[in-house]
Amino acid sequence: MPEALLRSDQERFPAEWEPQSAVLIAWPHADTDWAARLGDVEETYIALVAALVPRTNVVVCVADADLQTYAEARLRSSRVDLSRVRFVEVDYDDTWLRDSGPITLRTPNGFKLLDFRFTGWGGKFEASRDDQLIEHLVDAGVFTDATRESIDFALEGGAIETDGAGTLLTTWTCLHERHPDLSRTQLDKRLRDWLVQDRVLWLDHGYLEGDDTDAHIDTLARFAPDDAIVFQACDDESDSHFIELRAMAEDIAALRTRDEEPYRLYPLPWAKPIVDEGRRLAASYANFLIVDGAVLMPAYGDTADDAAAAVMAQAFPGREIVQVPCRSLIWQNGSLHCITMQLPQGLIR
């Protein structure tokens, strides 16, 4: 048995579909980038929490006590059950917790919270408060049996995807953009060592207009159980994404499982272009969130929403597929998975 697999028996990066204790989010407010359309995005957050609470607990970061009171009132007025919602007061720049929240490993003695540097996607935005988020959540007593490991290396949670069994999926574009001085071999080793993986699968193609993450994997391709990959396809030959996403599909088709077999592939349909004040927005169905018993998928008010839900049902049999309206989120270049971070079972107090 490879040495890395022996290590993963002791310390392991769980897949998103494994049992969870909660989902972590941060409530938008007037000092975040949502200010200009705060009412619209609050409706998405209310719909998200309403979809989560029947299935899991929700930990909601709030900037101060007034924001907590306000968020509680908004949720209560929408008849959201608050018995499974926990608020924690902590400072943050914005609400993209997939990238500023903890990447969690299971260990023989509990959990390890990997606290990589968050640089606002390569210095595009101010992120100093977000970079301290994990430390502040630890200080607030959110986690149990967990130690924080600070790692001086820029890496966002949306840039990596694991099958829970030692295989990591990522994009060369993003990792190379963050660390242009490192070779693929060097990056590969660092990812394997820190995330306790024995192999890294790299995609060389794939992008979305309106995405400022430099091609995060969670906007493009995601693992599903039993050696499957769900990915964003484009069947419109007139669309600017067609050539690149077709090349990405070919990259994915060439990948092999640990048993040297092709992955089972589930291409997602393509939504019609969504343009806001002349700017194309990144409407990807690959930005879904897996929770206990369900898959929460972004919906954009497009005819492809239901078709995407049908693909999800095939890829995740036995899980309910729940559509969450996310058109407001892509105005700020992210979607459902980007604003959430799942917390493995047993991690929260």
Explain the overall architecture.
The structure is a single chain. With 349 residues, the chain is α/β, with parallel strands linked by helices. The chain has one domain (3-344): L-arginine/glycine Amidinotransferase, Chain A (5-stranded Propeller). The protein has helices spanning 3-8, 38-52, 65-77, 97-100, 120-123, 133-139, 172-178, 184-195, 242-254, 304-315, 327-330, and strands at residues 20-26, 57-62, 85-89, 103-107, 110-117, 146-154, 160-162, 167-171, 199-203, 221-224, 228-232, 264-268, 275-276, 279-280, 289-291, 294-299, 320-325, 341-344. Strands 3-2-1-18 form a 4-stranded mixed beta sheet. It has a 3-stranded mixed beta sheet with strand order 4-5-6, with helices on one face. A hairpin with a 2-residue loop joins strand 4 (103-107) and strand 5 (110-117). The radius of gyration is 19 Å and the shape is globular.
Concise overview:
Helix content is 28%, strand content 26%. The chain is α/β, with parallel strands linked by helices. The chain has one domain: L-arginine/glycine Amidinotransferase, Chain A (5-stranded Propeller), CATH 3.75.10.
Instruction: Indicate how many domains the architecture comprises.
Output: 1
Structural class: alpha/beta
The helix tally amounts to: 11
Q: Could you please say which CATH topology applies here? A: L-arginine/glycine Amidinotransferase, Chain A
- Give the amount of beta strand, in percent: 25-35%
What's the N-to-C terminus distance? 36 Å
Main β-sheet, in a few words?
4 strands, mixed
Uncertain runs: 1-8
| Tertiary shape | globular
What CATH architecture label applies?
5-stranded Propeller
Helix content: 25-40%
CATH fourth-tier homologous superfamily? L-arginine/glycine Amidinotransferase, Chain A
Mean pLDDT: 96
Radius of gyration: 19 Å
Order of helices and strands: HEHEHEHEEHHEEEHHEEEHEEEEEHEHE
Number of strands: 18
- Oligomer, anyone? single chain
Neighbour order of strands in the largest sheet: 3-2-1-18
